């Protein structure tokens, strides 16, 4: 009886999973320690999989010599320019497909036809079109980022509640005001989620393009180390790519917190 007369616990907290930086850090440190212990115990053959200490030494030597920054700066430039180019055009195309019926069917037909093509297979074609220099690499990254961005943006626009759009129209908002104040904010979660996918795709295509035709870049460095069976430097290059992916993911997470704080 006292339970019925007492306060009712609040059960509407929603579904809001939270990140735990200590848990993520502890997981990575635990994997590295297990890896090092296995190598020290002889369970993991160091000839094929060097221990973390050897990789750390290789990274330090590359950093001191300046070779790491020489390769990393070239890769960062290509990744930034290629990703931004593909993203800008992809968002524009996705908005056009999602907002205008005249472009919807033709645009989706083109995207559906070209999106399944493995972009790595197009690298030789881009080399023929744009040469062996930066043009072919930037085209590969932009092309690979463009189509997932179009799909994410168009899907985000399609998921905007139509009641909000009708409300804006009933208040006499212009077409552009509805897009800027209603459609874009509502579609932004899908667009930012697409960023996580496109950045990963861009890093994969970056490495592939640099392996095919580049003197500088992390991909070219990894290929060169692999050809020489230099597994310490090979895995050092892979670690750099992993750290690059983690940094990009962290930046996107901060963007989501900044732009999507209203969801909390």
Describe this structure in words.
The chain is mainly alpha-helical and 264 residues long. It has a single domain, classed as MetI-like (MetI-like fold). Helix content is 77%, strand content 0%. The protein contains 11 helices and no strands. It has helices at 2-5, 21-40, 52-65, 67-99, 101-114, 123-130, 134-158, 162-170, 175-212, 218-227, 231-259. Helix 6 packs across helix 7 (134-158) and helix 10 (218-227) packs antiparallel against helix 11. The protein is flat.
Question: How is the topology of this model organized?
Answer:
Elements lengths: L1 H4 L15 H20 L11 H14 L1 H33 L1 H14 L8 H8 L3 H25 L3 H9 L4 H38 L5 H10 L3 H29 L5
Q: How would you spell out the order of helices and strands?
A: HHHHHHHHHHH
- Average of per-residue pLDDT values: 86
* CATH architecture classification name: Orthogonal Bundle
Q: Gyration radius, to the nearest Å? A: 24 Å
- Stretches where pLDDT falls below 50 for ≥5 residues? none
Defining key terms:
single chain; 264 residues; mainly alpha; MetI-like fold; 11 helices; 77% helix; flat
In short:
This protein has 264 residues and is mainly alpha-helical. The chain has helices at residues 2-5, 21-40, 52-65, 67-99, 101-114, 123-130, 134-158, 162-170, 175-212, 218-227, 231-259.
């Amino acid at each position: 009886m006292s339970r019925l007369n007492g306060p009712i616990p609040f059960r509407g907290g929603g579904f809001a999973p939270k990140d735990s930086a200590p848990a993520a850090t502890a997981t990575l440190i635990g994997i590295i320690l297990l890896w090092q212990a296995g190598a020290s115990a002889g369970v993991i053959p160091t000839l094929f999989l060097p221990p973390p200490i050897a990789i750390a030494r290789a990274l330090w030597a590359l950093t001191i010599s300046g070779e790491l920054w020489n390769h990393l700066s070239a890769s960062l430039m290509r990744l930034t320019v290629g990703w931004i180019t593909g993203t800008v055009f992809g968002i524009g195309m996705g908005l056009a497909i999602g907002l205008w019926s005249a472009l919807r069917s033709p645009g989706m037909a083109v995207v559906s036809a070209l999106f399944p093509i493995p972009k790595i297979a197009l690298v030789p074609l881009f080399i023929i079109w744009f040469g062996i220099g930066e043009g072919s690499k930037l085209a590969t990254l932009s092309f690979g980022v463009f189509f997932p961005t179009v799909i994410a943006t168009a899907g985000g626009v399609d998921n905007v509640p139509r009641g909000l759009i009708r409300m804006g129209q009933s208040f006499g908002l212009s077409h552009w005001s509805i897009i800027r104040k209603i459609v874009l904010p509502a579609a932004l979660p899908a667009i930012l989620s697409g960023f996580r996918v496109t950045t990963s795709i861009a890093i994969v295509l970056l490495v592939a393009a640099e392996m095919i035709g580049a003197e500088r870049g992390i991909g070219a460095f990894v290929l060169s180390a692999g050809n020489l069976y230099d597994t310490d430097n090979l895995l050092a290059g892979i670690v750099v790519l992993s750290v690059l992916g983690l940094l990009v993911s962290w930046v996107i997470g901060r963007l989501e917190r900044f732009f999507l704080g209203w969801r909390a």
